[in-house]
Amino acid sequence: MSVENLIKTSAKSGEGRIFGAYLCDDETTQQLVPVLSEREWDTSQVKTGGIESAIRTLATIGSPQFLLVDLSNSIDPEEDINALAEVCEPGTMVITVGKINDINFYRNMIACGVQDYLVKPVSTDQLRDAFLAAEHTLRTPIESTPAEEHKNKDKVISFIGVRGGVGASTLATNCAWILANERKQKTALVDLDMHFGTGALSFDLEPGRGLTDALENPSRVDGLFIERAMIKESENLSILGSEAPLNDPSYTDPAALNHLLIEMRNNFKYVILDLPRSIVADYPLLISETDEVILVTDLTLSATRDVVRFLAFCKTVAPQVKVRVLVNKMSGPGLVEVSKNDFETTIERKIDWEIPLDSKLMIQVAKSGKILAHSAKHSKIAKQIQAICDSFTGGQSEEKSAGLLEKIGLTKKK
Prior knowledge:
This protein is of the alpha/beta class.
């Protein structure tokens, strides 16, 4: 059933009303009118009085399918929202506006069952996006099935370089590209280095302000916001990053990061985080919200020390998270500060992956303007990165796993 048909069916109940609004100021009403005109919704359904008026009115008449309510005059918004829920029919999409600009308040509103909460003053674009998102929510439970939900189980994977220059960003970028373009999985690459990130640059793309906007305005972050804020590298790979001015403060509300990760999980099967080591201690929730952590290191004395520290930190803040150790730029015996045996003895575990040093190849890749997994896919390094992706997906790529009959188009018909 389409959204249009669903709305028409719903409109047969509740006095046949599709939309209703209870607002406290003319400015919000003025921003709303263009949206109502686009949808051919009745502007006479915009009433004054805010949520108190909505509760009184809807107690005597049926609630509309889409309801916009102003919380500005509410003394106890949560109590009023619960009271509103008592008079609304099941399935009513409630969008709220108000003056409180606080991520915890926003999360409380969502927990109470509100579809969205917008901080005033609101724009026409914000209201338009909110109603589009509400329509998407109506569509989702109808068109998805339990089997599809199980199939689309998400996974968040963090790449952390224990010291600068070990290649964590390069590995994160290549893994994201392989998952998206070879494994055909909907993948997000999130570069959390807002000032010096290279995620978008690796694909010769401009990062824009997507990440900065998402963290500065967490109440706006939903599926539609993410779709517009991210840069598309291909059909299956989207990149979220920023190139913030160096004089912009780097502090971020942890709750905003948490909300962003929740929305990313809802929209992608794989979320690859390029996580700068400098912010891990400030935002331990980034580790606890991750399914797997890949610690990227080399065999230097300082890196060995920091791998030990990171392993202990992850065990403390997120004991449930799977942590892997990847040694990049692996040189031969006698060419490293710490031998492989001494390294493993010190960290008290085995290395999960070793990627060889090949400076000549990396220079050629840089000159090609393409990432290594694309321009040197048959190299030893690319094959190791493929093995890393295998561990994420639990299997090989479509091309590798396809049988001979399938490759020549002679698969059996079911």
